[in-house]
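Weekly modeling sync, notes
Attendees: S.R. (lead), two postdocs, one rotation student

Agenda item 3: backlog of single-chain predictions. S.R. asked that every request posted to the team notebook include the full sequence so nobody has to chase files. The rotation student volunteered to paste the first one in as an example of the format we agreed on. Action items at the bottom.

Example entry:
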Amino acid sequence: PRAPKELQVQQQSLTLNWSPTDDLALFMNIPWFERRLTTLTQTQPAVIKGKPITAGQFGETTDNENGLGDITIEGRYNLWRSTRWDKFATILLGTTLPTGHFDGNVVSGAIGQAAGLQLGKGTATFTGGMLYSQRWKNLWLHTSALYTVNPENDDDYAYGDVVTGGVALHY
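Predicted structure, as returned to the notebook:
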């Protein structure tokens, strides 16, 4: 009787970056979300004595959620870099603070709404990983490997842990 049709998300962020040394960088991301979810709905047909007397009706509902998301804090430390800055290896550690709203009733109550309208995860998360970059003349290679732990929140909901890898070439 319900199925998601369209989810629109807009995000603006205030990002702060401070590098107290050449080897250490600290980041903070403060996001603001505007989310709109359109859900297709169908009413059940009326039935008398096992025979339908009216057909089900189709319609749409729209839900909005706007507000502050979970704040991300990261630290990056250069384990190794060349003196010309043409290659480096960096360790990244980060966390999110559960500042975004999470409503466990919405997640468990309607399949059409699920986790898409949530502004936060309802619990702190933890990320660790490595970054590596190397330059050859005008060509840059950037790589990353990250693992994020998403613990279960107080509403017994967990987004699941995430492994992320990336490779980029720049000319």
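Discussion: group reviewed the output briefly. Helices lie at 104-109.
Action items: rotation student to repeat for the remaining queue; S.R. to check formatting next week.
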